[in-house]
Amino acid sequence: MSSSPSVSREVRLAARPDGLPGPEHFTIAETPLPEPGAGEVLVRNRFFHVAAALRTLIGGAEGMPLPPVNPGDPLPAATVGEVVAAPAGGELRPGDLVSHWLGWREYAAVPAEACVPLGDALPDPVAHLSQGATAYTALVTDARLRPGDTVFVTGGAGAVGSMAGQIARLLGAGRVIGSTGSADKAERLVAELGYDAVVVRGAGPVGEQLAKLAPDGVDVLLDNVGGEQLRAAVAAARPGARFVLVGALSGQLAPDGNGGTAPVELDTFPFIIKRIEMRGVSNPGDPATRAEWPARFGEWLRAGQITFPRVELAGIESAPAALPEVIGGRHLGTVVVRL
């Protein structure tokens, strides 16, 4: 504790945005270094994930897995940090790397039971912020991906999508198609991230593009977007297709509303005729499948069979602009702030 600073900085919501957030909706505040209470550990945060879904929490939507973020509150995020101080007799020790959800701040007092020890399963601690576990669980358990399946991943350049194409390929998919918002990202998805072809939003009707890229139809949908892209997948679905809804960015990132709804009109008749299965999933998903992910991810990383696409922004000063950049689609992969 003697080598720790006396203050810590954190990013707070300054005002609830009327629409999409900008840097002006956040402020960096100095606070006294947190004093861990009974059963808490003091963690120096090293990295935290900037997730587009945070827009839903700061928009005030109710019924979400995490509570809303109100003006004056620090923001939550998946975080990797180093234990600075821990209760005597506990399982955690100073120097241990852990993951937790009190991100967007330099130091955090975290209940010991809310810290997950990271160990050495992955060669780089920042890789624990990959959203690959979500994609892996959705493809293995929920979509029951089979060798030879044609897979369509919407939002292929996002945190989940940039992992899902690679994972689907490693699991034996016969053809992997993604969607994204620019030709530049589409080129990278094909060149670097396991995709065979990409639907580019704005380059023509999504349904027509998908029909050309998957002339024999789609067996599996991993949907991060919803909206027009979900409708296109219904039209392209093969008999017995399995749809897994992971995100709803068409609504979460809409300029109007609070990010808590994503309405879409679907023709239900194809669901009956084609026997399409559709299910929504949210973290943590199937515990057994998720538990096997770190070892499998580490093996693939060390063998050079998979990458963790990310953009690292330096310092907490970069954080207020980071979320608007993510929402605006500026980056490919997971966006991480390195402290």
Describe what this molecule looks like in 3D.
The structure is a single chain. The chain is α/β, with parallel strands linked by helices and 339 residues long. The protein has two domains: 7-129 and 308-338, Quinone Oxidoreductase, Chain A, domain 1 (Alpha-Beta Complex); 132-280, NAD(P)-binding Rossmann-like Domain (Rossmann fold, 3-Layer(aba) Sandwich). It contains ten helices and 15 strands. Strand 8, helix 3 (161-170) and strand 9 form a beta-alpha-beta unit. The model has no long low-confidence stretch (mean pLDDT 95).
Distance between the termini: 19 Å
Low-confidence blocks of residues: none
User: How many domain units?
Assistant: 2
Q: Helix fraction?
A: 25-40%
Q: What is the makeup of the main sheet? A: 7 strands, mixed
Task: Provide the fold topology.
Elements: E1 7-13, E2 26-32, E3 40-49, H1 54-58, E4 79-85, E5 97-100, E6 107-111, E7 116-117, H2 132-142, E8 150-153, H3 161-170, E9 175-180, H4 183-192, E10 197-200, H5 206-213, E11 218-223, H6 227-236, E12 237-245, H7 249-252, H8 269-273, E13 277-280, H9 287-302, E14 310-314, H10 319-327, E15 334-338
Parallel strand pairs: 8-9, 8-11, 9-10, 11-12, 12-13, 14-15
Antiparallel strand pairs: 1-2, 3-4, 3-6, 3-15, 4-5, 5-7
Helix pairs in contact: 2-3, 2-9, 5-6
Quick structural gist:
The protein is built from ten helices and 15 strands. The protein has 339 residues and is α/β, with parallel strands linked by helices. Helix 2 (132-142) packs across helix 3.
